[in-house]
């Protein structure tokens, strides 16, 4: 099974991805881990695409992340795309809480990178909170269009709109032929 979990930052992609990975006992791959290098340096497209292709060469996986420019790679053999589409207030609150906790605890976000959230970063143009505010509506429109597109008619899409629906989806994984 090959699954990509998508949604706006703060929506709960990582949490849901990890639950799916655990429920199906298949590897979890975080796109941010593949993308970010030490000191918040971005991978080039060539580096990123190579890392992604290598990670997706496995028989089964749950991929956590958007990165629209990688769609031809990540959806080449995907079986299922799960769109985490929680409400704007909930998503923004989750993004804010996550950023605040990360800035407070100074936890390294991706092993070996040294990258950590900071209070200073919360109030810059690179703020994940600002990104969520400015991209929530765009992402919603993008994924609605993708789900209705003939180009992706071969992919099964599941849209979860609440934590309750996410829990029901996880519970159904053990009782289905995904």
UniProtKB/TrEMBL annotation:
- Which keywords, in A-to-Z order, does the entry hold? Kinase, Transferase
Ranges annotated as spanning the membrane: none
The UniProt record lists the keyword Transferase = yes
GO MF, one annotated term: kinase activity
What InterPro entries would the database entry show? Cytidylate_Kinase-2 (IPR052922), P-loop_NTPase (IPR027417)
Protein name in the entry:
Adenylate kinase
Taxonomic placement: Bacteria, Pseudomonadati, Pseudomonadota, Gammaproteobacteria, Oceanospirillales
């Amino acid at each position: 099974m090959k699954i990509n979990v998508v949604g706006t930052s703060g929506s709960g992609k990582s949490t849901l991805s990890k639950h799916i990975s655990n429920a199906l006992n298949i590897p979890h791959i975080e796109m941010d881990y593949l993308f970010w290098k030490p000191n918040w340096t971005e991978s080039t497209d060539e580096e990123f695409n190579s890392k992604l292709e290598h990670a997706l060469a496995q028989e089964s996986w749950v991929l956590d992340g958007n990165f629209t420019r990688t769609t031809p790679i990540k959806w080449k053999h995907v079986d299922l795309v799960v769109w985490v589409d929680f409400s704007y207030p909930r998503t923004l609150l989750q993004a804010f809480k996550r950023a605040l906790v990360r800035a407070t605890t100074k936890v390294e976000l991706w092993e070996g990178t040294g990258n950590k959230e900071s209070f200073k970063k919360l109030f810059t143009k690179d703020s994940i909170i600002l990104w969520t505010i400015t991209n929530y509506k765009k992402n919603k429109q993008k994924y609605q269009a993708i789900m209705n597109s003939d180009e992706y008619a071969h992919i099964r899409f599941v849209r979860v709109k609440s934590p309750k629906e996410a829990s029901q989806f996880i519970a159904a994984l053990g009782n289905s032929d995904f």
